[in-house]
Structure formats: C-alpha cells, structure tokens
Amino acid sequence: MKHKICIYAIARNEEQFVDRFCDAAAEADYIAVLDTGSTDRTVEKLSDRGVIVRQTTIEPWRFDVARNLSMLLIPRDTDLCVCVDLDEVLLPGWRAALEKAWTVDAETGTYRCICSRNADGSEGKMCGNAIRCVGKYVYDRGLTDKTELTIETRAGIKTLWLNVVGGTVETVRVCMGSPEFRPEKIPVAAAGETFLEQPIDVLGATWIVSSVNTGNPHCVTYVDDAMALDFPRIGPAFENHKLFPARANIEFVEVVDDHTLRVRVWERGSGETLACGTGSTAALAVTARLGKCGDEADVILRGGTLHIAWDRTQDLLYMTGPAAFVFDGTVTL
Fold first, then answer.
1. Is 276 a catalytic residue?
2. Is-catalytic flag, 113?
3. Which of 6, 22, 219, 276 is catalytic?
4. Cα separation of 8 and 5, whole Å?
5. Cβ count within 10 A of residue 91
6. How many other C-beta atoms lie within 10 A of the C-beta of residue 315?
7. How far is Cα 302 from Cα 281, in angstroms, rounded to an integer?
8. Is the C-alpha dihedral spanning 248, 254, 260, 263 positive or negative?
9. Are the C-beta atoms of residues 120 and 268 closer than 8 Å to each other?
10. Phi then psi dihedrals of residue 109, to 5 deg
11. Backbone angles phi, psi at 279, to 5 degrees
C-alpha cells in the first residue's frame, strides 16, 4: 500500500542545511517547514526548493507552541507524517523502509535519536551520563510533560524516571538493563560462562580482572589507591588489550565499605573521564556478584556520586544520578 507521507520541520537560521535537507526528504509527497524568525536565507532557499514555508515569531520561545503550529502545516489527507530537524539526514531508501515497517494497527513510529561519540570519534553504544541529560533536556525544554520516558540507544531501549523539583529535573533514575557476564556477549576473547577474577598481563604486571557488559564492554579491577596509578600509561594498555576485541572501558575500584565504592574510569576512545554511568553500573554488578559489596552502593567518581542498585529478582540494574543545566551555546560544524 502506498501512503501519502509528509515531512515537516521547525527551522531558524539554518540555510546551510537546506539543500541537504531537501535532497534527503525528496521522497516525501509533501514537505513543510515552520520558520520561527530566520534572518538569513533559510526561507528563501526553502521556497526555491518547493518547500511550503510558514513564518512566525515565538517570544518567549516555547517548543510546544512551535511544534503545535508546525503540525498545522500537515495536509489533512496525510497518512504518515515524519518530524525532523533541518540538520538531520534521512538515509536513502527511508521511505521504502518506513512503508515496509508500517503495519495496519500502527499508531506511531520511532527512529533512533540518541547517539554518543567518544573523543576519538567512535560511537558509544550507550552513555549513562548523557541519557540523564537527555531526560532533563526534553522535560525542562517542554518537549514532553511525562516523567517516565523510554529512549532507544544502540544498547537497547532504556526507561527513565525523572525527579522533578520546582518545575525542573534534579535527578534521573535509569533502568540500565541486565548485566551480561557471558564472554562472547561482552565481548571478551575467552572461553567459559563468565570472565571473573581472571589474571591478565598488562605492561609486564599481572592484574586480576573481571568483565561485564552493561551497555558497553567493561573490565573491572580492584586497587588500593586508584589516584596513584599512572593513568596515561596504563589506561591505553588495558583498553586495547588483545582480550577485548571491541576495546573496553576500565574501572579501577576501591571498595570503601559494603555500600560504597570509589571508582576511577578509563573509557575506550576517550581516555580518563570524570564519571561513567555504564562504568559505575559495571563496577557495582561485578563487585556485588563477587560478594565484595551489597546489591546497592554509592559509587564515588571524580565528577560526583551515582547510586547503583541491582534488583536480583528481575536481574535489572538501576542508576540514579543528578542532571544539571550548564550553558546554552551554538556550534558551527
């Protein structure tokens, strides 16, 4: 069955994206853009490309108002409507894929829209810190009024619960899924049902390590003083060890007590970071499984503290941590 498909968007001062946007959306039957006050050639270029453009001004800015106005541009006989930003790219064949995926009883469709990049440009499958920030952003900016969200990542769909205080999100609880201890699923180049408390050689020294996947592949080892380690030297050697075909994030863990861990993190593709959500989750999962701590603990990192809990009845891990607004800015790419 052929559907009538509309692509619609909201834009402001995005002339540099117009041609790419129009080329990518060309398979649509109808393309409409709500312009909210461009001072460049966005409107002119869109109109030249045959896009239906409506101009308006929204002061103070409210995304929900812009969204509702943009939806008024959708023709009444549209079967499927797809909302994108001008700087997003629809891949070739998107229309055929959409129509193939659409079923008679379908009401809404989704596409993966959260992507995290490491410092070296490689894509992370999941970022525990970023997903909390996404939850805060979409709520605080009026993109949703829900306090329970589901977000799709390359590590699967994650559920978030937003703790709202005074109209803004203060903390976010995230279901991180089940810990994966099977070596072939982490991945670790080793046989067996798990890879726990195994000796490996790193730079001529023997380390006892354990591995788990909590959205990313992780390697956990225990130390007396993580801050005393020569991180720029030892971190890359662990990350790129031959045992880890997809590389690994490394957690150097100090067990403070049954409910407190102190962790220093080396992330694949990024180096040392101040905090890591999947890494904190991995540290708790491994440490609890080995009986070195309880099933809940505060994980103290250089950038702050996260609370990690493992519900053994459901085999689900939960991360709770803060999310704070830092600044608004514009990046030219």
1. yes
2. no
3. 276
4. 10
5. 8
6. 10
7. 15
8. negative
9. no
10. -125, 160
11. -70, -40
Catalytic residue among 6, 127, 219, 293: 127
Neighbours of 162 (CB within 10 A): 22
The model's pTM is 0.67
| Tens place of pLDDT per residue across the chain (333 aa) | 588 999 999 999 989 999 999 999 999 999 999 999 999 999 999 999 999 999 999 888 787 788 889 999 999 999 899 988 888 778 888 899 888 888 777 666 554 444 555 555 555 567 888 899 999 998 998 888 889 988 878 777 889 999 999 999 999 999 999 999 999 999 999 999 999 999 999 999 999 999 999 999 999 999 999 999 999 999 999 999 999 999 999 999 999 999 999 999 999 989 999 999 999 999 999 999 999 999 999 999 999 999 999 999 999 999 999 999 998 887 777
Q: Which tokens go with 247?
A: 């590389």
For 200, the token pair is 């490996």
Indicate left, alpha or beta for 291 from its phi (over 0: left) and psi (-120 to 50: alpha): left
Rounded to whole angstroms, how far apart are CA atoms 161 and 147? 6
Look at residues 25, 24, 47 and name the one whose alpha carbon lies nearest to residue 35: 47
CA distance 285 to 181: 10
